[in-house]
Amino acid sequence: MLDIAAKIAKPVEVSGHRVVNLMLTEVLARNTDGLGSYLGTMRYRAVTEPAD
Fold it and tell me: CB under 8 Å, gap of 24 or more: what pairs does 28-31 form?
């Protein structure tokens, strides 16, 4: 799941981290692994926050 999120976040990151967070939220919401989703959110958040 995180792999898919990474591919979605990379291209969208250029447009804006806000869109990335929204996309990730939807992807992570479908992910049954709560821990994996949480870590994924923190990881991408750190990468997208400074991007802005």
Answer: 28/1, 30/1, 31/1
Nearest to 1 by CA among 22, 21, 30: 30
Domain ranges of the chain: 2-51
Tokens standing for 39? 């870590």
pLDDT tens digits, one per residue of 24-46:
555 555 555 554 455 555 555 55
pTM of the predicted structure, to 2 decimals: 0.18
At residue 29, φ and ψ (nearest 5 deg) are -65, -35
Q: What angle do CA 33, 5, 32 make, to 5 degrees?
A: 15
